[in-house]
Amino acid sequence: MSTPATNKADWVIPVGTSRADWRERLAPWAFRAPLIFMVLFFAIPMAMTVVFSVFERTMFWMEPGFTLYAYENFFFSARLVNFLNSMKYSLISVAICFVFGFPIAVFVRKSIPQVAQHRVVLLFILPFMVSEIIRVFALRPVLQRNGLVNSTLMDLGIIDEPISALLYSHTGVVIGEVLSFLPFIVFSGFLAMEAVPKFIFEVCDDLGVGPWRRFVDIILPLAAPGVFAGSVFIFVNGLGVALLPNILGGAGAVNAGLIATQAISALDFPLAMAVSAIMMTTLMTLLWIGHKLFDLTKILTPLS
């Protein structure tokens, strides 16, 4: 005669089950629930985005069909030029974030006591407790012609007249991207550096290895998965966050997110879906290349 537990689904827990049995039965759902969430709210919407991008546009919405007009409207117009320009400036932002952010991750791992390392890294995450629109808008009085940067440079005698290119230009967008996304290269770089034993630094010092050789030949190859993951995050957000060119950019500062926003405002939903599909394809291609080059699963080694 079978017990009640064998006649019910795995998620049904009979009365009188011990606490250990509860944990054993519920433990698999700790892994299934995030997977179900990602399928429902990420994979399926992304697949629907690709499908909707080939629908035919109507006056206020779209209807089922198959047309590549939205993609033609993107690739054979100024939108493609703006998209390529935003890619260029996003790469510049990635390079600047790496120059300033990754040395911070190395310094925290090498010089800060291990008990305090996570607390120090947390300091770089605290700015994200503030709304992004507030953080970005707060840059305008700093970067404008009579703002803090220009006033300081003129008081020091470094410049004779204000620099107009700091705001309402591609330069302003790059500055906004760096200040907005710098913590991600610090966090991902530190996460990768946790896999590097601390005695590596001591051995290099004992052998007389210079800082440059140690960085290029040892530290950077070991931390490459984390650096790449953080760089992809910065690059994709630089392409997709429409808030930055809206607030800090000029007439020519347009990225993919702003193109999609403008398409939605014009009720051209297939075009907005096509831009989203192109962005998604770009992200997946970058992740595939990075995984082939660096095996991005290594970034999770410290957590295993």
UniProtKB/TrEMBL annotation:
Under InterPro entries, the record lists:
MetI-like, MetI-like_sf
* GO BP of this protein: transmembrane transport
Q: List locations, semicolon-separated.
A: Cell membrane
What PROSITE patterns does this protein's entry cite? ABC_TM1
User: Its domain of life?
Assistant: Bacteria
Instruction: Report the membrane topology from the UniProt record.
Output: Multi-pass membrane protein
Q: Does the keyword Transport apply?
A: yes
Q: Which UniProt keywords apply?
A: Cell membrane, Membrane, Transmembrane, Transmembrane helix, Transport
Which GO CC terms are listed, alphabetically?
A: plasma membrane
Gene3D superfamilies in the record, alphabetically? MetI-like
Domain ABC transmembrane type-1 intervals: 83-290
What sections of the protein cross the membrane? 35-55, 89-108, 120-143, 163-191, 222-249, 269-289
Give the family, as the similarity comment puts it. Answer: Belongs to the binding-protein-dependent transport system permease family. CysTW subfamily.
Protein name listed in UniProt: Spermidine/putrescine transport system permease protein
Species annotation: Jannaschia faecimaris
Q: What is the lineage of its organism?
A: Bacteria, Pseudomonadati, Pseudomonadota, Alphaproteobacteria, Rhodobacterales
